[in-house]
Design a protein that fits this description.
This protein is mostly beta strands and 671 residues long. It contains no helices and 61 strands. The strands form 15 sheets. It has a 5-stranded antiparallel β-sheet, with no helix packed on it. Strands 56, 57, 59, 60 and 61 form a 5-stranded antiparallel β-sheet that branches.
């Protein structure tokens, strides 16, 4: 059974293993990849529907095709003509064909039973069509997630669009109702919508705030049933708009797709719960666990301990991978919290966001986790970065705010001026402010340390800016998910855009590399890209097909490390540079002598701050945090090491290095 894709991302079930390499990691050759073991891969199937030929037809986001599987289990795939179109929703039409949405192709597709595909461009630029369903009027109706409209397309391809009353509502799922109307979910609008055949729209607010309604389907009881992804409930709305919500038993299960079953019940998928659920008309819920569990690695950042740290979105863990490949995982206390963004903090710990848990987490180098609840319910905290004020800053995707959390857990929130902006990525800039992207509003935002926000419109409509990072040229660089470009914005707001060579590559993550370039991931192109400060782009294909590279960060070994969402791997690509930071202990290793913890910075970035910790036989020596350490009697016969963490300017990212153990002896007069 294929699970419905959520927010344009799915993964098959995997476990993280060790590291395999196509070459020597120490050489760090330009474009050389190193990856963790893959258990299972995927073409990222999204929507699925029964066709008039008795086969199941499905949209494959990852490899840009429409698939058909017969009852004899014969699979045929048909490539979508537009590269990087990312087909998502699919449904049978009254004309005997299958109709589908192209999320980044911004078109509606039609495929005949013999595989002939025709595409119809949606009039609104950057509309991001999502769900699609047949209407009682003989037409197909679809949602425009970014365009914030409901579309209707006739069998001969004529499209009409109807704007939603609520700005930035992000319509997602859609289905025909028993009343002759179309019903749809509003992902960020937190409402259920109804549209008549002549385009009159009515919206019904959900009782619980920030639940993220997603899938929707007609039930055998004459009502519409829908899932609440963040609210962890299944909802029912009658034709006279009475809404009831039913909590899913498993905490943080994130219900997603929903459909009526032949047993007169509603069946739904649990994205994070890794189960399929059934709810009767009397609201009795039963859950059936799937055999395989998924992890979906998402955020990644270098830690002060010399390792890379990452989040497991559905695995509900924070992971640590040494540059040699050893992986350790730590379970997040809140079940189903969906950890997402991660960054090193000035306190020597890693900080991360919990999407559906609506929290910010802190994890020490030995794995102790503390959680802090975000004040706004259903804020959907996403990516995170360290700020120049000694606090951590994060985006709230559905809360439409920028959050700030101090080292003692005090959270402040600042509303983004544009409604439905969907802030996504965030990073510290060289001007002492935080810069962020507005995925839904198509803008780049800047927020000062006292909360003053300025917004700059991206020139290309429907660009969907995603990740952002500081560049070595004093500008901020960002990815344009929908426009297939890399953008650069100066401190005074001048934006330049550079096209990615591979059509429909869908750039997502971006980070500065030690070679003076910016490195980025290509979600649909399945490549890692590098762009120089004068806009020259080079691409490197990821070895694993359909791996869906997502976020990226520079590592202490001189490589760029990235997460693979569908392949569930942590991988790295060489930049042509050696190790960025190294540490060594200098001095006589004897009682009474002074040892010095020396740092070598080969990163090319300026060190804004450094910190040191001394260890005896792997255990922290209390109070030993200076560059120099006087060897004590109790150190005799033991091994001493020093760990150095460097915070770089202007990005405020950290890297660490640990010295080799130094065995300690006695001075002559101690023998």
């Amino acid at each position: 059974m294929k699970r419905q894709m959520i927010a344009a991302l799915i993964a098959t079930a995997v476990l993280l293993g060790g590291i395999t390499s196509s070459g020597s990691a120490s050489e760090n050759s330009l474009g050389e990849f190193t990856t963790s073991d893959q258990i299972d891969g995927s073409s990222a199937p999204a929507g699925i529907a029964l066709g008039p030929d008795g086969s199941m037809w499905f949209a494959q986001w990852g490899d840009n095709s429409i698939g058909r599987i017969t009852t004899a289990k014969v699979v045929t795939e048909f490539a979508v003509p537009t590269a990087g179109a990312n087909p998502r929703g699919i449904a049978a039409g009254p004309d005997g064909n299958m109709w589908f949405t192209e999320y980044t192709g911004h078109s509606i597709g039609r495929i005949t039973m013999d595989g002939v595909i025709t595409e119809f461009a949606v009039p609104t630029a950057g509309a991001s069509p999502w769900g699609i369903a047949a209407g009682p009027d003989g037409n197909m109706w679809f949602t425009e997630y970014t365009g914030n409209r409901i579309g209707r397309i006739t069998m001969d391809g004529v499209i009409t669009e109807f704007a939603l009353p609520t700005a930035g509502a992000s319509p997602a799922g859609i289905a025909a109702g028993p009343d002759g109307n179309m019903w749809f979910t509003e992902y960020t609008g937190n409402s259920i919508g109804r549209i008549t055949m002549d385009g009159v729209i009515t919206e019904f607010a959900l009782p619980t705030a920030g639940v993220i309604p997603l899938g929707i389907a007609a039930g055998p009881d004459g009502s519409m049933w829908f899932t609440e992804y963040a609210g962890n409930s299944v909802g029912r709305i009658t034709m006279d708009a009475v809404i009831t919500e039913f909590a899913v038993p498993t905490a943080g299960a994130s219900p997603a797709g929903i459909a009526a079953g032949p047993d007169a019940n509603m069946w739904f998928t649990e994205y994070a719960g890794n189960s399929v659920g059934r709810i009767t008309m009397g609201a009795v819920i039963t859950e059936f666990a799937l055999a395989t569990a998924g992890v979906i690695p998402l955020g990644i950042a270098a830690g002060p301990d010399g390792a890379m740290w990452f989040t497991e979105y559905t695995g509900n863990k924070v992971g640590r991978i040494a540059t040699g490949g050893a992986i350790k995982e730590f379970v997040v206390p809140t079940a189903g919290s969906s950890p997402s963004g991660i960054a090193a903090g000035p306190d020597g710990a890693m900080w991360f966001t919990e999407n559906t848990g609506n929290k910010v987490g802190r994890i020490t180098m030995d794995g102790v986790i503390t959680e802090f609840t975000v004040p706004t319910t259903g804020a959907f905290p996403y990516l995170m970065a360290a700020g120049p004020d000694g606090a951590m800053w994060f985006t709230e995707f559905t809360g439409n705010r920028i959050g700030r959390i101090t080292m003692d857990g005090v959270i402040s929130e600042f509303a983004v001026p544009t409604a439905g902006a969907n802030p996504w990525g965030i990073a510290a800039g060289p001007d002492g402010a935080m810069w962020f992207t507005e995925w839904g509003a198509n803008r780049i935002g800047r927020i000062t340390m006292d909360g003053v926000i300025t917004e700059f419109a991206v020139p290309t409509a429907g660009a969907n800016p995603a990740a952002v990072a500081a560049g070595p040229d004093g500008s901020m660089w960002f990815t344009e998910w929908g426009a297939n470009r890399i953008g650069r914005i100066t401190m005074d707001g001048v934006i330049t855009e550079f096209a990615v060579p591979t059509a429909g590559a869908t750039p997502v993550g971006i980070a500065a590399g030690p070679d003076g370039s910016m490195w980025f991931t290509e979600y649909a192109g399945n490549k890692i890209g590098r762009i120089t400060m004068n806009g020259v782009v080079k691409e490197f294909a990821v070895p694993t097909a359909g791996s869906v590279p997502f976020l990226i960060a520079a590592g202490p070994d001189g490589s760029m490390w990235f997460t693979e969402r569908v392949a569930s791997r942590i991988s790295s690509v060489g930049t042509g540079r050696g190790r960025s930071v190294m540490a060594r202990v200098a001095g006589r290793a004897e009682v009474g002598s002074t040892l010095r913890c020396k740092l070598t910075n080969e990163s090319g970035w300026a060190a804004a701050a450094t910190s040191r910790v001394w260890f005896r036989n792997g255990l922290v020596i209390p109070g030993a945090t200076r560059r120099s350490y006087v060897v004590r009697d109790q150190d005799a016969g033991q091994n001493l090491t020093c760990r150095v963490a460097v915070t770089f300017s202007p990005a405020l990212n950290q890297m660490g290095a640990k010295t080799k153990p130094r065995p300690i002896g006695y001075l002559t007069d101690h023998k």
